[in-house]
Amino acid sequence: MHRHVRALTLVSAVTLGASATAHAQWMDQLKGALGGGGEMPSVTSASPGNIGGLLQYCVKNDYVGDQSAGAVQSALTRKLGGSGQGPQTPQYQAGSQGVLESGGQSLNLSGGGLKEQIARQVCGKVLDYAKSLL
């Protein structure tokens, strides 16, 4: 009986150790995908021009599942063009290349794997915020 308990304890310890190692590796990958800092810039702190460009990037790469995303992107681009924050600005251009610029931080959403998963989440937030700008 004691042997089984010890064996089970050993298996549990090894499993927990493997889980901790896998979690640490995942966190390292996440930090690498986020540019090393491990913090995601805030979408709501980005300029409207950057949001417009990002939404264009998200729609073009099919990172948003909302069918209205294209219409929101068009409406926002028209609105930004009238306010001087449209496609000709550096912020919009950065966004259209997949770069979120927010509060002195930036996050490049381009890339595959873990970065693509992050891009899909960020694009959902970008779409929600873009709707609030209309």
The Rg value, from CA coordinates, equals 21 Å
Largest sheet: 2 strands, antiparallel
Shape by Cα distribution? globular
The total beta strand count reads: 2
Count of runs of 4 or more consecutive helical residues = 5
Q: Helix amount, in percent?
A: 55-70%
Estimated share of beta-strand residues: 5-15%
Mean pLDDT value: 80
- Alpha-carbon distance between the termini? 69 Å
Strand order of the largest sheet: 1-2
SSE arrangement, N to C:
HHHHEEH
- The assigned structural class equals mainly alpha
Low-confidence stretches: 1-18, 22-31
Protein architecture, described:
- It is a single chain.
- The chain has 5 helices and 2 strands, in the order H-H-H-H-E-E-H.
- The N and C termini lie far apart (69 Å).
- It has a domain at 43-133.
- A two-stranded antiparallel ribbon has the order 1-2.
- It is mainly α.
- Helices cover 65% and strands 6% of the residues.
SSE layout:
Layout: H1 2-33, H2 48-60, H3 69-83, H4 90-96, E1 99-102, E2 105-108, H5 114-133
Antiparallel strand pairs: 1-2
In short:
The chain is mainly alpha-helical and 134 residues long. The protein has a domain at 43-133.
